[in-house]
């Protein structure tokens, strides 16, 4: 479908997590504009002698303005800046030197200019660069320090004080600076070893590994990442590095390292955590503060998103931070570094609903609905309003051609702009369109339902459509309309279900069985629309039962086995939601889903693997007989090695689910081992009892024989008996 409502949330049912990065430090970021600097150098080569000195004065002034070296190299950066500033008196006196300067002095001043260029870029890095990066890449940073120091020392060594008419007092000062540069050139002054070792241990650890809080506290204090401003500035700086050409995987891993520090800081100071996430944490013990899922964090700020929006690459960000990024002149996606085809921002309503659901489950005040004032369309002109009224008259006529044409025109107008959508809604078109949903003319019905779809993009029109009683008519079209009408009906239901209370209304209207049917027999586009609507509707707990009873689970499993359908990700996303409901969990288990899910974990995409693992976690959670059977079946399918691989190289969410499953599997295997040992012990005891039982009759026979012999001996005649006779 070509209508606007279909873009957006469907592209981000479950945000992708970043791939693992190798544990290697990134190279030094390139200077702000190397091409511009080369052009600047060419111009300066053509400068006259006096202008070279003027340029040196400007460079020192620019360097003096660079400050706030709040990182592990603060002393080195401050020393470099201070020594350069001490050159100002010499340069001021050099302005008065007779022209033209001797060739040797001219060359020495140009070398000093080039050295100051390099020093300026290094100091800029120390002032505004990433604090984490500066520590991780300390060897290259210190090598750059030494190179800059050596160039400055060599440039000063070539300057002739006599030719520049430098006074004795200033000469002594410059000679002192030259001596300091010479001494610094020969000394390697590395940063704090403990800080480096702490940071590297955290950098190289897996995302699921526990970290000593003392390490996180030391890192926060030594890196001076203790306030929201510090943390957010560091995050933005890391993304600036990635946009400048540094390896995205390395920057991504540094961002995850920063996230750990930020989580620790916010746990230590709950008030700052509440301020950062714009959500009010209920008064609880610090240790009970829930950890924000990575999928709900803005990749730039690393905070819980309040107003998530999707950019052209499909990635989701907090609106305020991505707007700040774009306003700074960037035209790339901060996370993927892909060039943005456009700078439009689409609200991610699905993710926002999931965030709200998570907040409610964890006792956190959900994000407030973002204000629509800045997006409010301008009022339409009198001519446009008159045109809409004329179309509504035709739509209300008894002439079929007029109705069809007017519905088609309204559809197109509603597609073009927010202003048109507001104008049409204000003119009272929605009740008339709703009344025509039951028309028997196929084309008119298609136009009407698609016009409602396009109108529903405007927030106020959602309420108008619902209050006009449109849902039963839309469900009617979903059941009996043409394929195009059914597709657009499903998309309309999705658009309306963005408002949480509408999920209940739509769920009670009989829409879910009709959507399940479209998912089963619809076109490729129809299946996508049905899946998106079902996913959003099933966020509401009461709709999960309806979806399961409508037979959704077997259809989803069929889609999983039809790789060519292109519906694997959508099917797994819905299964992951349903598996959290008791009836959904039972239905998935009864449908023999374990082999299919293990197959996805073995061969699926990263997103598919993480959702398959999430479903498995729900199925195997508990100690009942059914869960034991699922675990045994998963073991037979060879899941252990797959989970170990997923825990090592999957997405962040995939890693978490794999670790949870591995814990369940290990517990199950231990239980099996204990049960087997007990069974073997019982079998051994049974064998011994049987052996004893078999031996008992023989003992009795022997005892009886012995008793008979004793009795027989007692009856034999004795010598006394013979004498008596």
Automatic annotation (TrEMBL):
Biased composition, class Basic and acidic residues, residue ranges: 35-44
The reaction(s) this protein catalyses: S-ubiquitinyl-[E2 ubiquitin-conjugating enzyme]-L-cysteine + [acceptor protein]-L-lysine = [E2 ubiquitin-conjugating enzyme]-L-cysteine + N(6)-ubiquitinyl-[acceptor protein]-L-lysine
U-box domain ranges (all copies): 291-365
InterPro entries: Adaptor_Cbl_N_dom_sf, ARM-like, ARM-type_fold, ARM_PUB, Armadillo, MLKL-like_MCAfunc, PUB12-19-like_N, RING-Ubox_PUB
GO MF entries: ubiquitin protein ligase activity
A Pfam family the protein falls into: ARM_PUB
Enzyme Commission no: 2.3.2.27
GO biological process: cell surface receptor signaling pathway; protein ubiquitination
Top enzyme category: transferase
UniProt pathway annotation: Protein modification; protein ubiquitination
Polar residues: bias regions: 716-725
PROSITE patterns named in the record: ARM_REPEAT, U_BOX
Chain positions covered by the region annotation Disordered: 1-49, 678-725
Compositionally biased region (Low complexity): 15-34, 688-705
ARM repeat segments: 428-470, 510-552
Superkingdom of this protein's organism: Eukaryota
Keyword list, A-Z: Repeat, Transferase, Ubl conjugation pathway
Protein name as it appears in the record: RING-type E3 ubiquitin transferase
């Amino acid at each position: 479908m070509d209508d606007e409502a279909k873009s957006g949330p469907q592209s981000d049912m479950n945000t992708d997590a970043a791939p693992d990065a190798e544990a290697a430090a990134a190279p030094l970021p390139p200077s702000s504009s190397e091409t511009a600097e080369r052009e600047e150098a060419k111009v300066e080569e053509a400068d006259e002698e006096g202008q070279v000195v003027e340029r040196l004065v400007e460079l020192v002034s620019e360097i003096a303005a660079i400050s706030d070296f709040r990182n592990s190299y603060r002393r080195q950066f401050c020393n470099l800046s201070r020594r350069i500033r001490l050159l100002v008196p010499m340069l001021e006196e050099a302005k008065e030197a007779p022209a033209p300067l001797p060739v040797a002095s001219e060359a020495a001043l140009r070398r000093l200019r080039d050295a100051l260029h390099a020093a300026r870029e290094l100091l800029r890095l120390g002032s505004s660069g990433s604090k984490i990066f500066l520590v991780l890449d300390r060897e290259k940073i210190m090598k750059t320090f030494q190179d800059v120091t050596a160039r400055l020392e060599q440039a000063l060594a070539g300057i002739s004080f006599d030719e520049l008419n430098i006074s004795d007092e200033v000469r002594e000062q410059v000679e002192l600076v030259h001596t300091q540069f010479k001494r610094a050139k020969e000394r390697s002054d590395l940063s704090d070893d403990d800080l480096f070792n702490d940071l590297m241990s955290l950098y190289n650890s897996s995302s699921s590994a526990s970290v000593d809080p003392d390490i996180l506290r030391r890192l926060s204090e030594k890196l001076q990442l203790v306030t929201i401003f510090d943390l957010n500035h560091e995050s933005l700086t890391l993304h600036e590095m990635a946009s400048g050409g540094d390896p995205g995987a390395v920057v991504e891993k540094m961002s995850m390292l920063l996230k750990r520090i930020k989580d620790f800081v916010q746990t230590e100071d709950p008030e700052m955590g509440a301020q950062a996430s714009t959500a009010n944490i209920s008064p609880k013990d610090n240790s009970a503060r829930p950890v924000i899922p990575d999928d709900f964090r803005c990749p730039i700020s690393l905070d819980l998103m309040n107003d998530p929006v999707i950019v052209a690459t499909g990635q989701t960000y907090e609106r305020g931070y991505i707007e700040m990024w774009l306003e700074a002149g960037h035209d790339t996606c901060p996370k993927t570094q892909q060039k943005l085809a456009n700078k439009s921002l689409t609200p991610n309503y699905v993710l926002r609903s999931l965030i709200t659901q998570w907040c409610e489950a964890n006792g956190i005040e959900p994000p407030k609905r973002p204000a629509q004032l800045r997006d409010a369309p301008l009022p339409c002109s009198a001519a446009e309003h008159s045109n809409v009224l004329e179309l509504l008259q035709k739509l209300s006529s008894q002439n079929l051609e007029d109705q069809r044409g007017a519905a088609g025109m309204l559809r197109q107008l509603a597609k073009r702009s927010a202003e048109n959508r507001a104008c049409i809604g204000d003119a009272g078109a929605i009740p008339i369109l709703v009344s025509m949903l039951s028309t028997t003319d196929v084309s008119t019905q298609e136009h009407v339902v698609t016009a409602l779809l396009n109108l529903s993009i405007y927030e106020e029109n959602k309420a108008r459509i619902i209050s006009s009683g449109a849902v039963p008519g839309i469900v009617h079209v979903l059941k009996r309309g043409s394929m195009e009408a059914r597709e657009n009906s499903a998309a309309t239901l999705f658009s309306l279900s963005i408002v949480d209370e509408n999920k209940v209304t739509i769920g009670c209207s009989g829409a879910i069985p009709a959507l399940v049917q479209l998912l089963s027999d619809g076109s490729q586009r129809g299946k996508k629309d049905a899946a998106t609507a079902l996913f959003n509707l099933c966020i509401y707990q009461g709709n999960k039962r309806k979806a399961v009873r409508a037979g959704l689970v077997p259809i989803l499993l069929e889609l999983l086995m039809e790789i060519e359908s292109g519906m694997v990700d959508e099917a797994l996303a819905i299964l992951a939601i349903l598996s959290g409901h008791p009836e959904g969990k039972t239905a998935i288990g009864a449908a023999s889903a374990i082999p299919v899910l293990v197959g996805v974990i073995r061969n699926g995409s990263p997103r598919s693997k993480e959702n398959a693992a999430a479903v498995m976690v729900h199925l195997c959670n508990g100690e009942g007989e059914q869960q034991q059977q699922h675990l045994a079946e998963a073991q037979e399918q060879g899941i252990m090695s797959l989970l170990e691989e997923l825990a090592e190289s999957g997405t962040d969410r995939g890693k978490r689910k794999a670790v949870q499953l591995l814990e369940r599997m290990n517990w199950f295997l231990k239980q099996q081992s204990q049960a087997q040992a007990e069974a073997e012990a019982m079998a051994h005891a049974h064998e011994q009892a049987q052996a004893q039982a078999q031996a008992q009759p023989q003992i009795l026979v022997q005892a009886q024989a012995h008793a008979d012999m004793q009795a027989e001996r007692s009856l034999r005649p004795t010598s006394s008996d013979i004498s008596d006779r």
